Amino acid sequence: MVSEMLGNQYFLARKYTGAVSNFQQTLMDDPQNKSVRKKLIICYIQTGEIRKALEVFKELIEEDIEFIINTDMKEDACPCNELIQKYGKVLPYENKSVDVRIMLGMLWLFCDTEKSNEFFKSLLDENIENEKISSIVKIIENRLKTKQLNKLN
C-alpha cells in the first residue's frame, strides 16, 4: 500500500522512473491491481521500456479493455493527451519506427479506440510482433464491433 501511494506521488509529479520501482513493488503484493498496471504502461513508455509497456498493456486489455478505454483523464491524472500531443505526429522518417507506432497505439487506446487500432494494424500489416500485435488487434476490433452493435440496438 505504501509503495502504491509513493508510486502515485511520483506518477503525479511525472517522475516515472521512481513510479516504476514503486509500482513494481506494489504488483509483487497485488499482481491483479489494474490501476497500477494501467499507470505502469505510461511509466514504461516514458522510461523507454516499450516492450515492457506492451506486455502489461496486452495483459490488461485481455482482462478488461474497458479499464483503459474508460480512463478519466482528469481523475486518473492521465498524461495521455499530453503525450499524444508530444509524440502524436509520426514524422516521415519515424513512420518505420516500430517502437513509436507501438507507443502511439497504446496511448491512443486511452483516448480513441479507432486511432489505436490503426496504429496496431499498421504493425500487423508488416508482420511486426505478429502474435502479440495480432492478439491486440483482435481485442480492439472485437470491442469496436460490440460498440457498433450496441449503437444499432
Brief digest:
This protein has 153 residues and is mainly α.
**Corresponding CATH architecture:** Alpha Horseshoe
Mean pLDDT: 88
Shape from CA axes?
Answer: globular
The helix tally amounts to 8
Distance between the amino and carboxyl termini:
43 Å
What brief labels describe this structure?
mainly alpha; Serine Threonine Protein Phosphatase 5, Tetratricopeptide repeat; 153 residues; 0% strand; 8 helices
Characterize the structure shown.
With 153 residues, the chain is an all-alpha fold. It has one domain (2-152): Alpha Horseshoe (Serine Threonine Protein Phosphatase 5, Tetratricopeptide repeat). Helix content is 74%, strand content 0%. The chain contains 8 helices and no strands. The chain has helices at residues 2-12, 16-29, 34-46, 50-69, 80-87, 98-109, 113-124, 130-152. Helix 1 packs antiparallel against helix 2, helix 5 packs antiparallel against helix 6 (98-109) and helix 7 (113-124) runs antiparallel to helix 8. The chain is globular, with a radius of gyration of 15 Å. The chain starts with a helix and ends with a helix. The model has no long low-confidence stretch (mean pLDDT 88).
